[in-house]
Amino acid sequence: MDIATTPEVQEKLNSLEKLLFEFYDVNTDNSRKQELEKIFEDFSNDPHVWKHVRDFIKFSSNFYVIHFSLMVIENTLKIRGVCSDNESWTEMKYLLQSRVITMECAPFYIINKLIKVNAHIARIDWPHFYPDYFLNIFKLLQSSSNEFHVILGAKFLQITSEEFLSPREDISYSRKNEVKNFFQSRVVPDIFTLLLRALEVWKSNLKIIAALLEAFEQYFSWVPLGEVYSVALINSICQFSPKLEVGVLALTTLNEILYKALVPNSFLPVLSHVISHSFTLIHNVSTPIKSFDWQLISQEFDIMPITHFQTYLKGSLSSLLEVVPVKHAWGCGYVLG
Q1: Domain Exportin-1/Importin-beta-like: where (predicted)?
Q2: Do residues 113 and 72 touch, judged by C-beta distance below 8 A?
Q3: How many beta carbons lie within 10 A of that of residue 62, not counting itself?
Q4: SS3 track for the chain
Q5: Rounded to two decimals, what is the model's pTM?
Q6: pLDDT in tens, 304-320
Q7: Would you call the peptide bond into 325 cis, given omega within 30 degrees of 0 as the criterion?
């Protein structure tokens, strides 16, 4: 980064870079790696570790250094909890969130790690001590001209959902429930609205559409069926079915709805659209595959065999209908096998 630093910080940075390069060098033997691991461990236990990693993340452009610093933060949070110095802790939070925006040319593993650490911190502090966490993410998602920002916003939402709902030992059971309930009731409706809006704005950009659908898939996997799943949302997701790259993502996103064990009667009109669109998606993404090498396509798009979807969909429909009167299903136009 083109930011002025002090000679002391620069010396520490140079020293850490040298050690990390040595550690990842293929010519470094196991004995030396163990010595280096001990040095890294001692660094992590330093009482001033927060200050050091703050400086490293702020001033370094070396990916080894940034990744190492993020791992130290993660481990420190798990073992010691948050920094006792409120001012330093606040500075660290906003540094980490702002730093992600500067990482457009960084490898994905660095960007994902940065987002994950941000979400980890939010899981501890949001909403009371980190009230603008989601507001900052929403600003990224609402960018009208910056592809990277929109993808970043979608990734933030996806990973935040994963972090907020994952069972970890570093927060209490009551805190987990507090985060999930507040998240679901206060934030998820806005998330669905903004993701849907972004789908419409960026419908010609497949990279952004893929990121948005992956975010939707994550939320569909746990958000209960209700008003947030509108017909307009289902229709918007399914408009990309002719494009194989995102058509499969659209199909897997809809399948998260079909995994649900219970379907409220009020949701049946939307469910009819899900069923109808799912079969259309299967047809659209299966047709081009017949004329291509399936193994090659699977490697390129990382997709499961499409031929399994129709069987699964029929099975899911049968399970769903067990919890609602059959006459309602017939009324929605379902044909039972």
Answers
A1: 109-240
A2: no
A3: 17
A4: CCCCCCHHHHHHHHHHHHHHHHHHCCCCCHHHHHHHHHHHHHHHCCCCHHHHHHHHHHHCCCHHHHHHHHHHHHHHHHHHCCCCCHHHHHHHHHHHHHHHHCCCCCCHHHHHHHHHHHHHHHHHHCCCCCCCHHHHHHHHHCCCCCHHHHHHHHHHHHHHHHHHHCCCCCCCHHHHHHHHHHHHHHHHHHHHHHHHHHHHHCCCCHHHHHHHHHHHHHHHCCCCCCCCCCHHHHHHHHCCCCCHHHHHHHHHHHHHHHCCCCCCHHHHHHHHHHHHHHHHHHHHHHCHHHHCCHHHHHHHHCCCCCHHHHHHHHHHHHHHHCCCCHHHHHHCCCCCC
A5: 0.84
A6: 535 445 555 555 555 55
A7: no
- Which two structure tokens, joined as six digits, stand for 206? 């497949």
For 106-133, give the DSSP string. Answer: S-HHHHHHHHHHHHHHHHHHTTTT-TTH
Chain segment 279-307, per-residue pLDDT in tens: 777 777 666 555 545 454 455 444 453 54
Tokens of 336: 């039972």
Q: Token pair of 68, please?
A: 């190492």
Output the six-digit token pair for 216. 């939707």
